[in-house]
Specification:
Blueprint lengths: L12 E2 L4 E3 L4 E10 L7 E7 L2 E8 L8 E10 L4 E8 L10 E9 L1
Antiparallel strand pairs: 1-2, 2-7, 3-6, 3-8, 4-5, 4-7
């Protein structure tokens, strides 16, 4: 999915699987930004926690050539929880090349 990691302190983001695995229990901040391709379609991207959708972002304007969708959340995460993005519908421009996914620990518990 993702091809590049800019910051991965602690190596808890698995680039090959594109999954973050929490090293400890706490409140984490996650955000993402995705760009859809140039055709008339709708995209839906979910932020997943252990295979359950937490938040979604949609882009579906039929009259534009480019459109982005973003969302963010503070999330209670247990140790070893997995957090990742899942494309539910549509196609992203350049795959995940023009998309970002970020997360960090806000408050350990």
């Amino acid at each position: 999915m993702f091809q590049l990691v800019l910051v991965n302190i602690g190596n808890h983001f698995d680039l090959k699987a594109s999954v973050f695995q929490a090293p400890r229990r706490g409140i984490y901040s996650f955000s993402f930004h995705v760009v859809k391709v140039y055709n008339r379609q709708t995209i839906q991207v979910n932020l997943m926690q252990n295979d359950y959708p937490v938040i979604s972002a949609f882009a579906g304007d039929q009259d534009v050539t480019r459109e982005a969708a973003s969302n963010g959340v503070l999330l209670m995460v247990e140790r070893d929880d997995r957090v990742y993005l899942k494309l539910e519908r549509g196609t992203l421009m350049g795959g995940w090349k023009y998309s970002t996914f970020s997360g960090f620990l806000v408050f350990p518990l």
